Amino acid sequence: MSGDRLVVIGQAGKPFGIKGEIRIRPFTESFEAFERSAVLVFGEHRYKVLGLRFHKGAALASLEGIDTPEKARNLVGSLVRTYEENLPPKEEDEYYWFELMGMRVLTRDGRDLGVVAGIMETGANDVLEVQGDLGEILLPLIDDVVLEVNTQRNEMIVDPLEGLLPDA
Fold this sequence. Notes:
Blueprint: E1 6-16, E2 21-26, H1 32-35, E3 39-42, E4 45-55, E5 58-63, H2 69-73, E6 79-83, H3 97-100, E7 104-107, E8 112-121, E9 126-132, E10 135-140, E11 146-150, E12 155-158
Parallel strand pairs: 7-12
Antiparallel strand pairs: 1-2, 1-6, 2-5, 3-4, 3-6, 4-5, 7-8, 8-9, 9-10, 11-12
């Protein structure tokens, strides 16, 4: 993995206040990736971070060149990315969400369920949204269901609990 790779860590929301701060909805468990980022990328545009604070579960960023609510409004809806090196270190058997997105999902007997199209945070555990020939399948991201994740082969082996797969 190269350190200059950009990864999505949030999405720009509405401007905050009158000085051009932009509210960012984080796609991360902690704000550490934001705190470690001197530059954030909104869409295709890079901005130097002048200030960062946190308010009601959102990151509020002051960016170089964005000093009015009107300028900040142009960023609304943009995916916010940072360099991979700014992500907090992960433990063994932990994965960043971006590593799982697009991963092929197979049952332990080799049945292809599709690819990871999204991940939902539910509080108890994250849930994988798998899109394939059977439609959307929701799988809890727990050890009993996700048996193996292989980032080299870009696939995971799962053992869906009774009732999680549609009758085929």
